[in-house]
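Hey team,

Filing this mostly as a record. A colleague (T.K.) asked me to run one chain through the structure pipeline before their review meeting, and I want the input and output archived in the tracker in case anyone asks later how it was produced. No errors, nothing strange. Just documentation.

Input sequence:
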Amino acid sequence: MTINIGIIAAIAYGILAIVGGIIGYTKVGSKISLISGSVSGLLLIISGIIQLIGINWGLIFSIVITTILVITFIIRLVKTRKMMPAGLMILTGIAAVAVMVYQISLNNSATI
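Output structure:
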């Protein structure tokens, strides 16, 4: 059980998704923001924990969830043309996916 940068990225982006959902709900009363932010954030945190206990598919699951969120926020940015919160979530999501993919490459090079 060692923590790595992929685990940190998954959990950090999960926390950001939850906080963003809460902010969306408190500012404009968006229940969908609260629900989607909480569900996706919890899934990312759980996938980070799964990685931490040594189950490798947790990293893949984190990448899939984060990629779906990035695509969702790109669509939202195109529709609303508002950089917040979509722009923040896109940029941090892309960074998180990059870190997670890098972690996969590290894991694969260690097994060769």
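Quick notes for T.K.: The CA atoms of residues 100 and 106 lie 10 Å apart. DSSP finds four helices and no strands in the chain.
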